[in-house]
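Subject: Predicted fold for ECF transporter S component, 167 residues

User T.R. writes:
Posting the sequence so we have a shared reference for the thread.
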Amino acid sequence: MSTKTITGTAMLLAIALVAQSLRIFFPFIPNQVSMFLIGSIVSASLVLATWRYGVKNGLIIAWLTPFVAYMQGMLPMVPFIPIVAIGSTLYVWMVKYWQHRSRLGLVLCSSVIRAAALYTGFLLFFQSFQVPQKLMTAILFSMGWPQLITAILGIVIALLIESRMRS
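User M.O. replies:
I've generated the structure tokens; pasting them so everyone works from the same file.
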């Protein structure tokens, strides 16, 4: 692995982790705003790391960000870490597969698969374990259509950055 790859991946991981920390530094930002802002930045970091440095580097970010989210209290239970990481892993694989194919396929397939994996993963978890109704409702909501939007925005942001870097 080259120094450029390590440094680039580390920078994108840092961007994702700083984005996740916005809730801590700016607690007055409404949850709905922070969810879309942070989710879109993290998604863009995943996409850029995957496209520029490879799937393995996208997966590093995909697996570290949910762990840090748990440490920050954003994921309230340890079993949520792998559920989020698996959803992000599928997203990384899909954005890599669709990178040089149809833009519509890239946006739709990658985003729908991520949102569906997250929602389904949490739903299966909640069907298997007793979780307070209020927590279950909040998490299922945030893992539904908002994940679709943040995944789409992450790809759009990554495409815009990539086009700027080429010119």
